[in-house]
Amino acid sequence: MNQATPARKLEEVLHLAELCIEVLQQNEEHHAEAFAWWPDLLAEHAEKFWALFTVDMDTALEAQPQDSWDSFPLFQLLNNFLRTDTLLCNGKFHKHLQEIFVPLVVRYVDLMESSIAQSIHRGFEQETWQPVKNIANSLPNVALPKVPSLPLNLPQIPNFSAPSWMASLYESTNGSATSEDLFWKLDALQMFVFDLHWPEQEFAHHLEQRLKLMASDMIEACVKRTRTAFELKLQKASKTTDLRIPASVCTMFNVLVDAKKQSTKLCALDGGQEQQYHSKIDDLIDNTVKEIISLLVSKFVSVLEGVLSKLSRYDEGTFFSSILSFTVKAAAKYVDVPKPGMDLADTYIMFVRQNQDILREKVNEEMYIEKLF
């Protein structure tokens, strides 16, 4: 073992842990009834047994490189056994195990927060706002980005199953690449920490609170960046009846729809003061939706004002109108002439209908569409 690589040492200790658990389970099966009157003796024996294992475990863990996360499966294996054993749960060895892994978990969450924050920043700088479809198949294998400004390789999330909501979510959504990536990472991180099943309640609660607050901050950043991008996109759009809502604007709507759905899961904590994270982000999303609906309505109104301005040329009593009506009457003797302004009116009606169709087809939330209309 002394000559082995860190990875090999960890592999051996993981295998040894499996054998130790198996031995203790056999002891329980064969001797529990005989020792039913002396459970403390059985517990004392098990603690001595784990004390022998501790020597090898500590040696193997000390050999691991800094910011290596390969040892988490060892914690999960041992903790899942110890937390279900009434004699050993939060016993001497169990507490020692937690003491070793507390700094690792805290460091991991810290680095993940930096990683996700920087990936949001970079993602929105390069965001095309093209709707992302069929992302569910590729996301579970996406490695978390390495951030050059940090002098280390950022952690990769250890093995875990894809979040249960992923399939149903991505079948119906057309959000942006950055937002989909964000929601997935936040959920994956929360699922990983949840799967640790931390036995000490106070630290477990601290971890959960930290992750919910992190999700709230990240989603807030996502919503604000989306709102800014929406306003810039709309400012550049045409003010005439040629305007057709770009797909990117619909994608921004959908990002807010997804943020609303995901905040319920990612930001909500049961009870008391912690509920404020979810309430705060919910209020922000609702207000942002109101603002972007207002911006879009203002854009449509400016188009309408342009149309009305052109139609006003045909108002009776104006000098320009009298000339137009004279020429129309003169021409009508020879050909079928449309009424003044009808082409303009038809163009405006087409503008409204086509934009309604675009919004109905591409925005995922009926309630928002109804408010906009």
Automatic annotation (TrEMBL):
PROSITE patterns, alphabetized: MHD1
Instruction: Tell me the domain of life.
Output: Eukaryota
Query: Main subcellular localization, coarse class?
Result: membrane
Domain MHD1: from-to ranges:
55-226
The keyword Signal appears for this protein:
no
Query: What do the Gene Ontology cellular component annotations say?
Result: endomembrane system; glutamatergic synapse; presynapse
- Where is the protein found, in the record's own terms? Endomembrane system; Synapse
Sorted alphabetically, the keyword list is: Lipid-binding, Membrane, Synapse, Transport
Q: Does the keyword rRNA-binding apply?
A: no
Q: Tell me the GO BP annotations in alphabetical order.
A: dense core granule exocytosis; positive regulation of exocytosis; synaptic vesicle exocytosis
Q: Which InterPro entries match?
A: CAPS, MUN_dom, Munc13_1
Q: Name one GO molecular function term.
A: lipid binding
Annotated protein name in UniProt: Calcium-dependent secretion activator 2
